[in-house]
Amino acid sequence: MTELQEKNLKYNWHPYTQHKTSSAPIVITKGKDAILYDENGNEYIDGIASWWCNPHGHSNEFIAKKIYEQATTLEHVLFGGFTHNKAIELSEKLLNLLPANQSKIFYSDNGSTAVEVALKMCLQYYVNKNQKKNTFIAFEDAFHGDTFGAMATSGISLFTDSFKDNLLSVTRIPVPNEENFNDVYKKLEKLLKSGKIAGFIFEPLVLGAAGMKMYEAKHLNQLIKLCKKYNTFTIADEVMTGFYRTGKLFATDYLTYKPDIMCLSKALTGGFVPLSITSCSREIYNGFYDNDVSKAFFHGHTFMANPIGCAAALASLELTLSEKTQRNLSRIYKLHNQFANQLSKNSKVENIRTKGTIVAFDIKQNNENIEYYGELRNLLYDEFIKNKIILRPVGNTIYIFPPYCITYDQLHRIYTVIERVLGKL
Ligand SMILES: *Cc1c(COP(=O)(O)O)cnc(C)c1O
User: Fold this and answer.
1) Domains, the chain, with CATH or none
2) Residue 26 DSSP code
3) What is the pTM of this model?
4) Is 281 in contact with 103 (CB distance < 8 Å)?
5) Residue 208, ligand 1, Cβ within 6 A
6) Which residue's alpha carbon is nearest to atom 10 within ligand 1?
7) How far does the centroid of ligand 1 lie from the alpha carbon of residue 387, in Å?
8) Residue nearest atom 5 of ligand 1, based on CA coordinates
9) CA 220 from chain center: how many Å?
10) 145 in helix, strand or coil?
11) Is residue 260's pLDDT more than 80?
């Protein structure tokens, strides 16, 4: 352990980490594009875009410059009773890009709070209408964040078990596939008929934390259509899928039926500073629009719509929509598909799947009970680190989720290391 690592462990508490048994966190001193440098000068290829939030690479100078300009112009202003031009510009741009039914933007700080806002919008909407609807529907294995509402709608027991006696009312339905679709549909319809449902929340097309579990747009379309039939709100949590991660600007762009509420965060600011938005339809907004003050939406955060965050988001959006990024995206889609083809010849893997810039597969296991942070996962993680590649396998799933600026050589290096590690198993 280095001196800095020792000092770190003296003072810091890391997420999802059993400090008694895990190895010391690596001290990163610098980042450039898809590379992170540690204190000993080692270079790691970032294969997971820094926990899914970094599309344009580390320390991107264009975004950094815009942040500097904003920080030296207006660093913060309260969003209660005041506004500023970066929030206005960002909301206008986002609403032009989001599905046409999205009509207002509510700012907060991170993915979890964006979800909290979405859930509270649904709950208070019905309170304002004097209706009692307080149960949510969510997918088994969903992940929507670690605050209480977000956690209640999340279905990965490792993350929520300790808190399960203190959570909102949520009923789960399985993630749909060809075999179970009719059952899922019937289960959803039965729940919707109960009249108690405040909303259905889902990660569209890809369940990230569940291990990049993928399902089809045609199935989600049918489920949203059914919710519309029963006048039930739908919430697309695009915190991970937003900004071309799945091959379209938003995963929702694959759908014909659009959600009432959407959550965005992670890549929103290019991975520079925390910021999130919850967008909603006019119908939801109108449910709060009244002469009665008590019907106003009672939610806010000190740093909501922070000008530096908005400036970073505007800069990142400009890069996201640029031709250069579009070329990078096409290259990643193509290379991922080639890699997936090659993997299909490997007898050790199964469930090979790609969606846009994500490629994932499972290592065949005899054991049914694969632990999220289990032995295999830790072995793989350590092997990748030894090879100076940052990947975070989930159970027996390996996925690649690169920043869009990753080079051909860097991506190939990741594929090669994965194949080599598979060969050792
Ligand atoms: C990461 C994530 C969240 C939580 O976001 P935080 O910024 O970590 O609070 C919520 N939903 C999805 C789909 C996510 O991937």
Assistant:
1) 3-59+323-424 (3.90.1150.10), 64-320 (3.40.640.10)
2) P
3) 0.97
4) yes
5) yes
6) 144
7) 28
8) 111
9) 18
10) coil
11) yes
